[in-house]
Amino acid sequence: MKFQKSSFIFVAALAVLLIAAVSFSGCLGDSSHDDHDGHDHGDPNASYDPLDNESVGQVVNGSKILVAASVVPQTEFIEKVGGDNVIAISMIPPGAGHTYDPSPRQLEDLSKADLYMQLGSGEPFETNNMKAFAEMNLNMTVINSSAGITLIQSGSSTDPHIWTSPKCAIVMVENTYKGLAALDFANASYYRANADAYIKELEALDAELTAELSDLKTRNFMVYHPAWAYFARDYNLTEISVEVDGKEPAPKDIVKFIDIAKENNISVIFVQEQVSITGATAIAEGFGGEVFVIDPLAKNYVENMRYVGQVLAEEMS
Ligand SMILES: [Zn+2]
């Protein structure tokens, strides 16, 4: 299957569509949560898996569309919609944080990308890099994944973690469809069918989570890094983050969070893999609870979110 480089008319039409800010069901609530002024620490050894020679060849000869995104779950959305026609890369590798700096090899791959699915949610990585990315690759169409999502205000910025709510993921998948269909109109019906099938899965996941998280003993949960504000908003929960301005909590904060945990019947602090958990462990010890790992950046999105829902429901019941 030969990918035809897009006609600008369709790209322009798409831009108009996105600017029209279509409103989608769900993911439109509004609430304020913990500040997200800080940046998570991330794993300093996180590494990007570069495109292999075969993939580079397919991108260069136009038989595959190279779609870049900022975080790993987006690559799942892109592959679900694009199927065999796309190769997806995440610019923030698994385990890296919001202030990750892309490597020269990543920039080399990105220079061949046809499309960038920008989170568009105030992600610091994008604030730091998108302008340079666009200037480096003038052939790359940039599409805003969060068009149609009401962003959560966080301090002076917005909370970037839109993907952790399946309701938001549905909107992101729809935007991914629009990006691919505009770029490769000849295959639009293929992308539509793929998107519809995946959205069905996400809707089923959403229904499951809604049911599972409806009747709980407490609606408050404690996390180290505040990656779950959209999830919390869309399932009527409250995220309490113990990370303070992107840093480990100070001793006085640890005392405060121990009290908050006790007051709210909290038994667990959720942390993410590869992030320092010293402060979280100290707090958990203080209220006699435990630290439990959940991953906001896993690739197998539906399975992972189902798991997260089960863990939260169990701990909050
Ligand atoms: Zn984060």
TrEMBL record:
Comp. bias (Basic and acidic residues): 34-43
Pfam families, A to Z: ZnuA
Keyword GTP-binding included in the entry's annotation: no
Keywords: Signal, Transport
Transmembrane segments: none
Superkingdom in the source lineage: Archaea
Start and end residues of each stretch annotated as Disordered: 34-53
SUPFAM superfamilies to which the protein is assigned, alphabetical: Helical backbone' metal receptor
InterPro entries, per the entry: Bact_metal-bind_prot9, ZnuA-like
Keyword flag Transport: yes
Family statement drawn from the similarity comment of this UniProt entry: Belongs to the bacterial solute-binding protein 9 family.
Protein name in UniProt: High-affinity zinc uptake system binding-protein ZnuA
Species per Swiss-Prot/TrEMBL record: Methanimicrococcus hacksteinii
Taxonomic path: Archaea, Methanobacteriati, Methanobacteriota, Stenosarchaea group, Methanomicrobia
Gene that this polypeptide is encoded by: znuA
